[in-house]
Amino acid sequence: WPTGPSNASPLPDHELDACFRTWLAAHDVEELAPLLRNAKLQTGLRRFAFVHGDLNVVAFVAEATCVVAADWLLAASKGHTSVLDWLEARSSAYPRGLMECGVSSNQLDVVVWAHKRQLDVAGNLRTVAAERGFLEILIYLDAHSLSGWDPMGVSIAAERGHVDVLCFLRAKAYAGTGPVLVDGGSDVRFM
């Protein structure tokens, strides 16, 4: 198993990913035990487990180490609702920020998962979705009246060229999508 020089930091994600996938294809998950004793590899293996959503590896790593909020958020950021289900079945509390993580990483399934569980909703999620051009998420948040809205989201969405988002916001009469006066006082709209 390549770890680099003994004083080096853990392998970069892409190198660990390639090495681990090759290794896992030839070994059983139980053979991870000695690898988890190596602090450098443990960090990478935990990350791999939650980034890639392999439930066998997640279960083994979680049993050998302590699951923390960052593990939930990492799985959420990659859209692994099956991992979130697995974690939920083994935990009495959700970490804060799961829905926010789903919105900011454009993972609609995670947003729906968090909403079904009535998890906390930050006040600016519609704005974040609009600014980043995540139309499907914006539509979902709007349909369920989740989160608030900051009219500055219109300007940022426009600067970033999210025309589909602007059309949706305008059609729904979101604050900030009305007429804008420019130099000569002419009436300009976002469409």
Give a verbal description of the structure.
With 191 residues, the chain is an all-alpha fold. It has helices at residues 13-26, 33-36, 39-52, 55-64, 69-77, 81-89, 98-104, 108-116, 125-132, 135-143, 152-159, 163-171; strands at residues 180-181, 187-188. β1 and β2 (187-188) form a beta hairpin. α7 runs antiparallel to α8.
Number of strands: 2
Strand order of the largest sheet: 1-2
Helix content: 55-70%
What is the makeup of the main sheet?
Answer: 2 strands, antiparallel
Q: Please state roughly what percent of the residues sit in beta strands, choosing from under 5%, 5-15%, 15-25%, 25-35%, 35-45% or over 45%.
A: under 5%
Gyration radius from CA atoms, angstroms:
21 Å
* Element order: H for helix, E for strand: HHHHHHHHHHHHEE
Number of helices: 12
Distance between the termini: 57 Å
Show unreliable segments: 1-9
Secondary-structure blueprint:
Blueprint: H1 13-26, H2 33-36, H3 39-52, H4 55-64, H5 69-77, H6 81-89, H7 98-104, H8 108-116, H9 125-132, H10 135-143, H11 152-159, H12 163-171, E1 180-181, E2 187-188
Antiparallel strand pairs: 1-2
In short:
Helices cover 58% and strands 2% of the residues.
Characteristic key phrases:
single chain; 191 residues; mainly alpha; two-stranded antiparallel ribbon; 2 strands; elongated; disordered N terminus
